[in-house]
């Protein structure tokens, strides 16, 4: 095992166990509050929970100066993976609970905010307004949400005011600066020109076109190239991503209440620059909650939330393909001034054509993207106590999201250059709306040693919306982006050409009608039984398949309450839990069982000077037999607490099987590209361990720790009809540079890389040499990588060598194999908080072990492909050499072997980009995600001016990462497909964030 990886694993284990052992020895008393958790439509005591539920209270998040709740919970909940796909401001955050169950569909959990479903809720909520987050992980808890609970449920409760409380005002604000953590090493100017010398002079013909081109661009003699040792280097990565990005965040909350009412009003504003020039993020949010007791029996409440955000900048690669990779230009553009007939800061169209590169700063100025999101949530509830034991509750909610994206491509971009060098604008608009109504009856009764809690409910949900895209070409070359966005009529088509018509689409209405019930029974405060069932009717499926039924049951035994443990002082809680449940998934487009005509410009025809929209059937073939995807989960767990709350935690083991997967399969029918089918099965099984407590609890000093570690093994059990006859797999393209670089195979996990094994390079011993012709010919029996890696050119010494896995003497597609999985063997986090008098400090780590990362940047930057004058990865400086120190080409085998005795890298191949094992790296890491130091003034210090609490703090986010990964960041994952995770291609680099802030309560 690699020593660095081994040391990282020991570091995880040591940091995890030492505080736990210390807690077992420290016996000072600590009182713990009997927590209440939300488990779906009502709350229960945490001690009475029978399911797998992880929770984090707002108190644990209050000192985290981050702008997204998703960032705040990263690494804090067992079985919950939170991964920022890249480091751009306002970037997407993926949350996966107990591994992904779906293959081609979304694995995002269901988010419920104050009782209302709200997509992407974790990225649009400020951590400061969260009261609690509960994550339902097994089907015995999620099945109460039926068709929406297959990927887990995240229940978020925002803060409310308190009745009979005086009005308090809290302000929490912080400011900080972000800096890029690291850059990719590339060839310096001298190394660059030496490499170009080999590319141009490889034929060894003096006076040919290549020889003349090199002399004109770089210098006429080999010795003359030494001047590049002193040429000023331009670090394009630093110029593009080295911006000092400032952040200003303000949180203001006002809370209070009277005898019968309570209110809470919060404001949040974020203004954040990105480390990449021209990028940034702004967000403003307001939330108002009001609760009122109409009478002793009748209560009423409303919640109104509005948020708007603006994300500027194109990022690095909008979809991650080679043609729009902005990161590629900053890495591969020539690393110095000059070298062209046009100055480097001016646009040279011939240089762009010959190199497929544009100056990254010019390109950044010529690509503009403004992405705006407006979110509205309105909900109200009515609570009526029919009797002291029977309560009726009705909740009505409305959620609306409006998205508008304006994109501009200026004259130097590839899009404009393919359009007569004239700018282009694309305007995208969409709106989605969701209406929810939930009505429940809750009956609770205690009689003797019995406690009964019965819930009955009914729910309806409707989602609909529309979208439009307007792609407008031929703007005047001098037009500015904002002018183009505001006046698309300024675009004038050349004679004989017409503009594309706007494309519009209607989001098919998604309707869900549900009925559900749950019974919770406790006997003698020892034995707990919970059972639930939900029936969901969905218009996604055809009549006959519309209804899905999702039952669940769980048991818990409070062993501590038994007589034989009742008087054991050091044991405060011991509870055993088992659960079984079925949940579902219907996350596909509605009405796919019927043929409808789509009306848009793509199906149109030209009439006069415009395109008249036409109608055509969808390219997705109908399937009247498609039905619910079903997830069956089995869970067993133990909850424990020792030494009067000094040490507490839980252990859970689970098996989750998902069958009848809703897969978008390719079909061989004319006119159709694909069809949704129920095809395949997956399994996730794993263990979760959570521990926490107080290591030291003295009057002037305290040390607490909370830690969790989880393991999950994902296995594809069946792919159904998704494979060809006689096969148990199919190949998947990540959409980057490596073709079919993933495999979905029965017996393997989702996210398995698939490619060639790197054998190194071809050496002199692999060839026969003809001294008269000076030609190297590959020996008989030595497999040739020519067709796969070298663009079909003859193999030469120093070329990339791939392993012949099947032993047939040649390198073909059949020599690919599985190269590891993007899924970690285990992951987790641990948080330590320290208190010394009025000072406080927290250290929060998260880690991942055993996952592989596909470093696609590394593959691209060590592959020549079609273009010269491209800079390369610094490793290329150690490549095979054909020219000696005088610039003379060497062909003699003995001399050539001596020339390359100390080089190890192969010649960058000129063939297509392929995935080979050189690009697969260990992605294990330990990250110090957050370190905070705070000071709170003694109570009463500022009471004379109305200040109840005053705290100053300083924080560093992403302080360091211990990893063996050579790319920007081991957590990068730029694909949105569950089958292709862990691809680091053109990701926006992560940054380090230095923060200072103040927290004041009046």
TrEMBL record:
The keyword Cell division does not apply. It holds the Pfam family TonB_dep_Rec_b-barrel. GO terms for cellular component: cell outer membrane. One of its GO terms (biological process) is iron ion transport. It is found in: Cell outer membrane. Coiled coil: none annotated. Keywords: Cell outer membrane, Ion transport, Iron, Iron transport, Membrane, Receptor, Signal, TonB box, Transmembrane, Transmembrane beta strand, Transport. InterPro entries: Beta-barrel_TonB (IPR000531), Beta-barrel_TonB_sf (IPR036942), Plug_dom (IPR012910), Plug_dom_sf (IPR037066), TonB-dep_OMP_SusC/RagA (IPR023996), TonB-dep_OMP_SusC/RagA_CS (IPR023997), TonB-dep_rcpt-like (IPR039426). Transmembrane segments: none annotated. Residues 46-153 form the TonB-dependent receptor plug domain. Residues 1-24 form the signal peptide. It is a multi-pass membrane protein. Residues 319-959 form the TonB-dependent receptor-like beta-barrel domain. Belongs to the TonB-dependent receptor family. This is TonB-dependent receptor. It comes from Chryseobacterium formosense. The lineage of its organism: Bacteria, Pseudomonadati, Bacteroidota, Flavobacteriia, Flavobacteriales.
């Amino acid at each position: 095992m690699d020593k660095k990886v081994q040391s990282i694993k020991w570091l995880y284990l040591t940091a995890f166990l030492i505080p736990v052992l210390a807690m077992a020895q420290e016996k000072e008393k600590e009182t713990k509050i009997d927590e209440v958790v939300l488990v779906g439509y009502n709350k229960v005591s945490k001690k009475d929970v029978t399911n797998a539920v992880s929770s984090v209270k707002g108190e644990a998040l209050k000192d985290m100066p981050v702008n997204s709740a998703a960032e705040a919970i990263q690494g804090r909940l067992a079985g919950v993976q939170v991964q920022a796909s890249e480091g751009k401001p306002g970037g997407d955050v993926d949350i996966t609970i107990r591994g992904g169950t779906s293959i081609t569909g979304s694995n995002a959990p269901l988010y419920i905010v104050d009782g209302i479903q709200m997509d992407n809720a974790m990225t649009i909520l400020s951590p400061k307004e969260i009261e609690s987050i509960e994550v339902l992980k097994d089907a015995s808890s999620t099945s109460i949400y039926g068709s929406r609970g297959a990927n887990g449920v995240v229940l978020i409760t925002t803060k409310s005011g308190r009745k009979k409380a005086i009005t308090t005002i809290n302000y929490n604000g912080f400011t900080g600066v972000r800096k890029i953590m690291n850059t990719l090493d590339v060839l310096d100017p001298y190394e660059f020109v030496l490499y170009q010398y080999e590319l141009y002079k490889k034929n060894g013909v003096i006076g040919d076109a290549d020889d003349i081109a090199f002399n004109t661009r770089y210098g006429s003699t080999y010795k003359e190239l030494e001047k590049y040792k002193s040429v000023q280097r331009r670090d394009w990565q630093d110029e593009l991503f080295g911006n000092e990005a400032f952040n200003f965040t303000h949180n203001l909350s006002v809370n209070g209440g009277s005898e019968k009412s309570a209110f809470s009003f919060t404001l949040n504003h974020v203004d954040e620059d990105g480390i990449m020039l021209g990028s940034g993020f702004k967000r403003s949010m307001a939330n108002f909650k009001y609760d009122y007791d109409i009478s002793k029996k009748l209560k009423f409440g409303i919640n109104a939330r509005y948020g708007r955000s603006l994300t500027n900048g194109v990022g690095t690669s909008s979809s991650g393909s080679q043609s729009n990779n902005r990161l590629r230009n900053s890495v591969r553009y020539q690393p110095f001034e000059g070298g062209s007939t046009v100055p480097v800061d001016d646009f040279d169209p011939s240089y762009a054509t010959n190199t497929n590169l544009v100056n990254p700063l010019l390109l950044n100025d010529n690509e503009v993207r403004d992405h705006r999101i407006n979110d509205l949530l309105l909900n109200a509830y009515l609570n009526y106590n029919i009797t002291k034991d029977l309560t009726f509750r009705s909740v009505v909610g409305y959620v609306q999201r409006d998205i508008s994206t304006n994109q501009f491509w200026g004259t130097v971009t590839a899009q404009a250059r393919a359009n007569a060098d004239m700018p282009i604008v694309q305007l995208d608009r969409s709106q989605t709306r969701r209406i929810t109504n939930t009505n429940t009856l809750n009956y609770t009764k205690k009689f003797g040693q019995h406690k009964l809690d019965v819930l009955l409910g009914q729910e309806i949900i409707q989602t609909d919306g529309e979208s439009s895209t307007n792609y407008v070409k031929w703007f005047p070359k001098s037009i500015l982006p904002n002018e183009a966005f505001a006046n698309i009529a300024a675009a004038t088509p050349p004679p004989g050409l017409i503009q594309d018509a706007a494309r519009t689409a209607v989001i098919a209405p998604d309707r869900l009608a549900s009925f559900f019930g749950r019974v919770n029974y406790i006997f003698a405060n020892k034995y707990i039984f919970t059972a639930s069932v939900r029936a969901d009717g969905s218009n996604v499926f055809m009549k006959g398949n519309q209804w899905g039924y999702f039952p669940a049951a769980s048991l818990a035994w409070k062993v501590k309450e038994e007589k034989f443990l009742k008087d054991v002082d050091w044991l405060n809680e011991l509870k055993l839990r088992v659960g079984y449940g079925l949940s579902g998934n219907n996350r596909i487009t509605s009405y796919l069982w019927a043929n409808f005509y789509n009306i848009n410009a793509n199906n149109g025809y030209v009439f006069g000077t415009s395109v008249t929209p036409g109608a055509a059937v969808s390219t997705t073939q109908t399937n009247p037999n498609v039905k619910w995807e079903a997830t069956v989960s089995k869970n067993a767990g133990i909850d424990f607490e020792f030494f009067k709350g000094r040490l507490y935690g839980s252990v859970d083991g689970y098996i989750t099987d998902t069958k009848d997967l809703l897969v978008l399969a390719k079909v061989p029918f004319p006119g159709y590209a694909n069809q949704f089918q129920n095809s395949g099965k997956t399994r996730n099984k794993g263990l979760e361990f959570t521990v926490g407590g107080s290591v030291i609890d003295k009057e002037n000093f305290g040390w607490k720790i909370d830690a969790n570690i989880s393991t999950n093994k994902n296995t594809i059990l069946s792919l159904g009809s998704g494979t060809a006859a006689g096969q148990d797999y199919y190949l998947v393209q990540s959409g980057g540079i490596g073709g079919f670089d993933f495999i979905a195979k029965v017996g393997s996990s989702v996210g398995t890389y698939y490619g060639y094994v790197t054998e190194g390079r071809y050496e002199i011993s692999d060839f026969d040499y003809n001294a008269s012709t000076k030609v190297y010919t590959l020996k008989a029996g030595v497999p040739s990588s020519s067709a796969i890696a070298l663009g079909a050119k003859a193999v030469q010494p120093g070329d990339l060598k791939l392993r012949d896995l099947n032993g047939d003497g040649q390198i073909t597609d059949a020599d690919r194999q599985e190269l590891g999985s993007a899924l970690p063997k285990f992951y987790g986090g641990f948080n330590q908080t320290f208190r010394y008098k009025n000072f406080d400090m927290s250290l929060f780590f998260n880690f991942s072990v055993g996952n592989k990362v596909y470093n696609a940047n590394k593959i691209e930057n060590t592959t020549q492909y079609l273009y010269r004058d491209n800079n390369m990865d610094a490793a290329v400086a150690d490549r095979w050499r054909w020219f000696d120190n005088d610039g003379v080409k060497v062909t003699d085998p003995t001399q050539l072997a001596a020339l390359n005795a100390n080089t190890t890298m192969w010649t960058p191949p000129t063939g297509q980009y392929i995935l080979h094992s050189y690009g697969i790296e260990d992605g294990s890491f330990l990250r110090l995600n957050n370190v905070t130091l705070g000071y709170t003034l003694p109570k009463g210090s500022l009471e004379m001016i109305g200040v109840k609490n005053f705290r100053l703090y300083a924080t560093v986010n992403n302080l360091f990462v211990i990893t063996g990964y050579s790319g920007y960041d081991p957590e990068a994952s730029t694909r949105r497909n569950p089958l292709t995770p862990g691809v680091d291609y053109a990701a926006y680099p992560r940054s380090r964030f230095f923060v200072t802030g103040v927290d004041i309560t009046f």
